[in-house]
Design goal:
It is built from 5 helices and 7 strands, in the order H-E-H-E-H-E-E-E-E-E-H-H. The chain is of the alpha+beta class and 183 residues long. It has a 5-stranded mixed sheet, with helices on one face. Strands 1-7 form a two-stranded antiparallel sheet.
Length: 183
């Protein structure tokens, strides 16, 4: 699996579906991935969801330099606990992503340096590095799903009602207590 910093925390192992780079050859490969049973449960645990009811993705993988470009479109149905009412609720999510991946040692990888480097926030992300020649397709889908999940879930229709502000006692109430301490 990938040794990319973005795929840590169990995400790389959550949905171990991959494509060997040598299977890509010179043409485009399209894959449809559907998570089922234990895979849904494992992904839900890793992403700290109450339940992952469904996860499906369509991927298009094309050769890019000595690696691949992956374009994905996914849909999911998740169950979370509302942060206000503490009730479970279901949410439909969807997303798309595009990324590039190359094998270790590729000239497309950024050069590692001990010197300060300048980053351009408008530039494309550098390609992911894969070390075993296998593109972790399932991990890329789970990673994008994880970014789409609301970290502060709120059930539709539930509004937060702040507790009433404590009112400051009137200065006259303080004087009344001094005059009549038994009251």
């Amino acid at each position: 699996m990938a040794k990319d910093h973005r795929l840590d925390g169990g995400i790389a192992e959550a949905w171990p579906v991959g494509l060997a780079l040598h299977d890509l050859g010179r043409g485009t490969v399209e894959r449809r991935l559907i998570a089922e049973g234990p895979t849904l449960t494992r992904i839900a645990q890793i992403l700290e969801l109450t339940k992952l009811k469904s996860l499906e993705a369509r991927l298009r993988i094309t050769p890019w330099l000595d690696g691949a470009q992956i374009e994905g479109l996914w849909t999911a149905s998740i169950v979370q606990i509302c942060g206000i009412s503490l009730e479970p609720f279901e949410t439909a999510l969807g997303g798309e992503f595009s990324l590039r991946a190359v094998p270790s040692g590729s000239s497309a990888l950024p050069v590692q340096s001990d010197h300060e480097i300048e980053l351009d926030p408008e530039a494309d992300d550098p390609p992911d590095e894969i070390t075993d020649g296998v593109l972790p397709l399932g991990a890329y889908v789970v990673e994008d799903l994880s970014l789409a999940i609301d970290p502060f879930p709120r059930k539709p229709g539930v509004d937060f009602q702040p507790p009433p502000e404590p009112s400051e006692p009137s200065p006259f109430a303080a004087l009344a207590r001094l005059k009549n301490p038994d009251a």
